Amino acid sequence: MKRPSELERKSPEHRFARSMSTTYEVGDMRPNVSSRSQLGILMLNGSFGVGKTAVACALLELIPGALLFDPEVVGTCARRVTEGVRYGAEDTDDYQDIALWRLLTVTTGQHLYRQYERPLIVPMTLVNCSYLAAIRSGFEAVAPVYHFCLTAPLPVVQQRLLDRGDGPGTWPWEKAAQCVPVLEDNHYQEHISTEDRTVGEIATSILERVSQRQLENHA
């Protein structure tokens, strides 16, 4: 079993985002955050099924001009171009283990931010501490980075996976069981609970925390 590619996951992931999008209305509930590229890069971490895509879509509505960068697209490319030549630590069921993926994720994010001067939203499950550190530090070389880890109890995550068609035996289901407890660790702060909250509430909470950090940094 391998990590499903962007193309393989596109339909169920988009159905999940659409089903959750009906639970929020962004309206004029826009916290006072810096506009354009000054907002920097928002990294949305969290288990498969926790709601990263839906929250990212809500943030796109709340942040004028923001861009969505999904590193899974880069993962699909990295896996295809290294097919048949990967070996050792790279030859696993997860494209995140391919060194090229980490390099391309950083350079693509940096280029998007520099070229288009817009806030960047990056939803991606990052459990490997060294991978997270490498990507985060790479982004920090060009922009302020705000990392948030979305959380929910495993039964809640599993129900969300079922709702989007990823049941027992699928790659996301198996990985969620591993990711959920690990991502609760303080290393993955700042944590934001998604249980019993609408997508709009979660997105607004994220922007409020970003605004608070900006105020603290300029105090």
How many β-strand stretches?
5
SS-derived structural category: alpha/beta
Largest sheet: 5 strands, parallel
| Poorly predicted segments | 5-36
Largest sheet: spatial strand order: 2-3-1-4-5
What is the residue-mean pLDDT, rounded to a whole number?
Answer: 86
Q: Could you tell me the strand content as a percent range?
A: 5-15%
Q: What's the order of the H and E elements?
A: HEHEHHEHEHHEH
Number of helices: 8
Rg computed from alpha carbons, rounded to a whole number of angstroms: 17 Å
State the shape.
globular
Distance between the termini: 50 Å
Helix content: 40-55%
Describe the structure.
It is globular and about 50 Å long. It has helices at about 5-20, 50-60, 70-80, 100-115, 130-140, 155-165, 170-180, 200-215, and strands spanning about 40-45, 65-70, 120-125, 145-150, 190-195. A five-stranded parallel beta sheet has the order 2-3-1-4-5, with helices on both faces. Residues about 5-35 have low confidence and may be disordered. α1 packs across α2 (about 50-60) and α4 (about 100-115) packs parallel to α5 (about 130-140). With about 220 residues, it is α/β, with parallel strands linked by helices.
Descriptive keywords:
219 residues; alpha/beta; 8 helices; five-stranded parallel beta sheet; single chain
Put the structure in a nutshell.
This protein is 50% helix and 10% strand. It has helices spanning 6-21, 52-62, 71-81, 99-116, 129-140, 154-163, 171-182, 199-217, and strands spanning 41-46, 67-68, 120-123, 145-151, 191-193.
Give me the secondary-structure topology.
Blueprint (H helix, E strand, L loop, with lengths): L5 H16 L19 E6 L5 H11 L4 E2 L2 H11 L17 H18 L3 E4 L5 H12 L4 E7 L2 H10 L7 H12 L8 E3 L5 H19 L2
Parallel strand pairs: 1-3, 1-4, 2-3, 4-5
Helix pairs in contact: 1-2, 2-8, 3-4, 4-5, 6-7
